[in-house]
Write the structure tokens for this entry.
Amino acid sequence: PQNETTHSSCCGEDPPSTPAKECTTRRSTARRTGMTGRLLFLTTLALLLTLVAAAPEGVDPGADFQGYMEERDKQAEAREKHDALLSEHEIWRQTTYAGWGVRQLQALGNHFSPFFLALADIVQGEPDDTPIAFLLTLVLRVIVISAYIVAAFAIASIVNSVFGQEIVMEEQVIVEVDDDEDEQVEEEEDKKEQ
């Protein structure tokens, strides 16, 4: 009878379906869940109050847009300068030999761009896919290394022609002959003459 009273008062269920021990376990779980919920609520409340207290009080709502028009004017001015530079560059490209050379190089690059893109795909992909791709990758590497070597020699020759002088190697050969050898040579010459 006492178990039934405890059971019915704590769980609110009929006594035969649940024993008294399970009821106490449920009650302690309910207490922990209730405490966790309260703790979570208090933490959230403290965080909210901290954020509200930290917010500046005298903020002008229009301060976010302060300087917007000046910045917009600066951007428009920069865009106009950029457009003016582009138009001057186009005039340079159309009226000078150097500009003609640049145009020709760009046209050549645009003409061969599918080929260069295909090469880039092969190089960036795994070279072990096919033997041709592997061979092409090796050939491209050799070409790039050779181009770097040729460019280094070309730059060195230009620098040498501007700043350098011709390098001349002079050798002086000094032959030392001992006095004893001199006498022997003279005697041999005398013998030959006789």
User: Anything to note?
Assistant: The chain has a mean pLDDT of 76.
